[in-house]
Amino acid sequence: MTVIFSKKCELALQAVLFLSVKKEKKIFNAIEISEELKVPKEFVSKMLQILTDSGIVGSKKGKNGGFYLAKKPSTIKLIDIVEAIDGLDVFQSCVLGFPGCSVSEPCPVHEKWGKLRDDALKMLSEETLEQLKEKTLNKILDL
Amino acid sequence: MTVIFSKKCELALQAVLFLSVKKEKKIFNAIEISEELKVPKEFVSKMLQILTDSGIVGSKKGKNGGFYLAKKPSTIKLIDIVEAIDGLDVFQSCVLGFPGCSVSEPCPVHEKWGKLRDDALKMLSEETLEQLKEKTLNKILDL
DNA sequence: TCATAATCAGATATATTTTTCTGTTAAAAT
DNA sequence: ATTTTAACAGAAAAATATATCTGATTATGA
Q1: Do residues A73 and A127 lie in contact, with contact meaning Cβ atoms separated by under 8 Å?
Q2: CB–CB of A96 and B4 under 8 A?
Q3: Strands (DSSP E) along chain B, which ranges?
Q4: Closest to A57 measured CA to CA, from A118, A2, A16, A10
Q5: How many CB pairs under 8 A join A and B?
Q6: Residue B13's closest chain A neighbor by CA?
Q7: Domain spanning B7-135: CATH 1.10.10.10
């Protein structure tokens, strides 16, 4: 079970964080990333292809090809990746699954969850990859 | 897509909330509950059977049978239902899906998510069904 | 006691998500 | 030019989660 993001999204976030602590424009192929993150390379490919489509990641085919951040880390936020993969529905939907949960027809935890949801959104959209870099280095080795 | 709980869990929470605003020990069969919550009756049955096993809900077979809260609303919290259906892993796992995310090896959002996760746990464990009753009535009709 | 109505247990089916595969295309190096 | 390497696209397979069905059991009321 995932927490709030799909497995796809989790992997995408991890892969982008990985790229963000490397020298800018340095290229890594799917195998290298998959080994670092310990996930199948086909899955890495798939996700990074989606992020390539959405312009966050760039790619280069052929020998010495691979993936790299297409934008500066100072312009990318975690929420961008979430939006590209899972979309932003989580930040709209009722946590108890009630249909039509709203201010006028709130579920029993509507208000409290609203606060939490906003904080979660903040967590993902306040800091850029650049600002997260140091923390990211605690988790991902800068090889 | 669910927010953080599985569909099963969402339904279980809804069903228990439904029962909590009814007269104590009043019995409802799966069909009645399914009509109120607009979900298939087999699904309601399945979930309430699990909650019956875990002692939150009681059941009575045969004619005029059905389901009812096995405990007083003042002793049941939403977290009890979550625990019975999804378990409490969500409140342990890394939101970015990193393996071995911990204080000594935190992911980039470890601390912030920790706070949010604790608040979420609070949201589900501070108030009893009794205390939520009024809010629940805003969402579920007291037929 | 019999017919009926309901839960219950377990199997099955369906849907969704995740993962892998197959072949194609593009780029680079030899 | 040719070979090699890697992304890319889309299909297929596997795994997981969700939903449905079947038959058995149990309780009630007539």
Answers
A1: no
A2: no
A3: 57-60, 66-69
A4: A16
A5: 116
A6: A96
A7: yes
